[in-house]
C-alpha cells in the first residue's frame, strides 16, 4: 500500500488547477476527493482533467465537474490477490482503500503491489519433452519454446513466477535443449538465476528431479510443466502448502465429460434407473505441484519416474498429498487445437497485469 495517499486528497470544492498541483506533487497519477467527514466521494485523474478541458471547462471549475463519482475501491483488510484482481479487471494503476463507513484509509497501486519480497523457494520447470502430438511444429522446436502471443510458452510461465517473487529456477532439458538454453541463458536478462538439469535419457515426468543437487532443495519446490498456459495464483498455492505442510500439493482442474448415451443402472439384469447423457465430473492434474524437500531428496538419480507414480508412492506410505483446485485460466497445450486456442486467448488472458 502506498504511504503517500494523504498528500493526494482534495475537497469537492477544490479547483481543477488545485487538482493538477496535487496530482503532480503526489506522483500517483490520481487525486482522491473526500467530503468533510473523510469519506471517499470521487477520484480525479490527469485524463479526467484533460477531458474537462476538451469540454472547455475553466481551470477554476470545481473538481466535481470532472471527477469519477463512482470509483472502484478496496475494503480495508483486502488480500493481495483481491487487489491484483481488481486492478487487473479495472485496467487501472491505483485504487483507493476505504473502511466500513466509506472513509478513505489508504491507496493501493500496481507499482507498490508488484514490489514483492523475493521468495527463496526453488522452481523447477519441465522442458525436456518431445511434443510428439504437436508435430510438425515440434520437428525443429521444443514444445515449450513454441510461441504463444509472440513469446515462447516457457517464457510466459517463467515471467508469471518472477512476478510472484520467485528467482531461483531450474529447467530440465533434453530434446533440442540448445534452443532453451540459448534463449534463457543464465536468467540474468530476467533478473533471476537459471540452472539447467540435463536429461541424457528421458526420465519421465518426475525422474529429472532426482538430478537436482541435494542442497538446492531446502524449502518446498514448485514444479511446473513447460507446456501449460495459466494464470494460477502461485502465492495462494504456496501459502496453502505451507499452511498444511503435506508431502505434496497437486494443482487440479475440474474436467467434465458428457456420456453421449443413456446410462443404465442395474441390479443383475433388472434396470433400476436410466440417466440420459449424464455429465461426469472429474479432477485432473493441472501440471503444477509443490513438493516437500524430503520427497525430492528421496529420489534416486537417473531413475525413470512419472509424477503420478511418485505421488502414489507418497500416498501409499501414508503421507499427505493435497489438492489445490485451479479456478484461474488454465490450458494444457498438448494437441494442435489446444495450441490454436492458446493463440486466440493470448491477447485477452496472457497479457501482464
TrEMBL record:
The keyword Cell wall biogenesis/degradation does not apply. InterPro entries: CBS_dom, CBS_dom_sf, Mannose-1P_guanyltransferase, NTP_transferase_dom, Nucleotide-diphossugar_trans. Residues 1-59, 67-123 form the CBS domain. Keywords: CBS domain, Transferase. It holds the Pfam family CBS. It comes from the Bacteria. GO terms for molecular function: transferase activity. The keyword Nucleus does not apply. PROSITE patterns: CBS. This is Nucleotidyl transferase. It comes from Halothiobacillus neapolitanus (strain ATCC 23641 / DSM 15147 / CIP 104769 / NCIMB 8539 / c2) (Thiobacillus neapolitanus).
Amino acid at each position: 500500500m502506498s504511504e503517500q495517499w494523504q498528500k493526494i486528497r482534495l475537497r469537492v470544492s477544490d479547483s481543477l488547477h488545485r487538482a493538477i498541483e496535487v496530482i503532480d506533487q503526489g506522483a500517483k497519477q490520481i487525486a482522491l476527493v473526500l467530503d468533510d467527514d473523510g469519506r471517499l466521494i470521487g477520484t480525479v485523474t490527469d485524463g479526467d482533467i484533460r477531458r474537462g478541458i476538451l469540454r472547455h471547462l475553466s481551470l477554476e471549475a470545481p473538481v466535481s465537474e470532472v471527477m469519477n463519482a463512482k470509483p472502484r475501491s478496496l475494503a480495508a483488510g483486502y488480500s493481495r490477490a483481491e487487489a491484483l484482481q481488481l486492478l487487473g479487471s479495472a485496467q487501472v494503476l491505483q485504487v483507493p482503500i476505504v473502511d466500513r463507513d466509506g472513509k478513505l484509509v489508504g491507496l493501493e497501486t500496481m507499482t507498490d503491489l508488484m514490489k514483492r519480497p523475493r521468495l527463496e523457494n526453488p522452481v523447477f520447470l519441465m522442458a525436456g519433452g518431445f511434443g510428439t502430438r504437436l508435430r510438425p511444429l515440434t520437428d525443429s522446436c521444443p514444445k515449450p519454446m513454441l510461441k504463444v502471443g509472440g513469446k515462447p510458452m516457457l517464457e510466459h510461465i517463467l515471467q508469471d513466477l518472477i512476478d510472484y517473487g520467485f528467482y531461483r529456477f531450474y529447467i530440465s532439458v533434453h530434446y533440442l535443449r540448445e534452443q532453451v538454453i540459448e534463449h534463457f541463458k543464465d536468467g540474468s536478462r530476467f533478473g533471476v538465476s537459471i540452472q539447467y538439469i540435463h536429461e541424457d535419457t528421458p526420465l519421465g515426468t518426475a525422474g529429472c528431479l532426482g538430478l537436482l543437487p541435494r542442497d538446492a532443495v531446502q524449502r518446498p519446490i514448485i514444479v511446473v510443466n513447460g507446456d501449460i498456459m495459466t494464470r494460477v495464483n502461485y502465492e495462494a498455492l504456496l501459502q496453502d502448502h505451507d499452511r498444511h505442510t503435506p508431502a505434496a500439493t497437486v494443482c487440479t482442474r475440474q474436467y467434465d465429460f458428457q456420456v453421449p448415451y443413456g446410462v443404465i443402472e442395474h441390479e443383475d439384469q433388472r434396470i433400476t434407473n436410466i440417466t440420459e447423457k449424464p455429465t461426469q465430473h472429474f479432477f485432473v492434474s493441472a501440471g503444477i505441484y509443490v513438493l516437500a524437500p524430503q520427497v525430492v531428496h528421496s529420489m534416486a538419480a537417473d531413475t525413470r519416474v512419472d509424477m503420478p507414480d511418485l505421488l502414489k508412492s507418497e500416498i501409499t506410505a501414508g503421507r499427505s498429498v493435497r489438492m489445490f483446485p485451479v479456478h484461474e485460466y488454465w490450458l494444457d497445450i498438448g494437441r494442435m487445437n489446444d495450441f490454436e486456442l492458446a493463440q486466440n486467448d493470448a491477447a485477452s488472458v496472457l497479457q501482464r497485469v
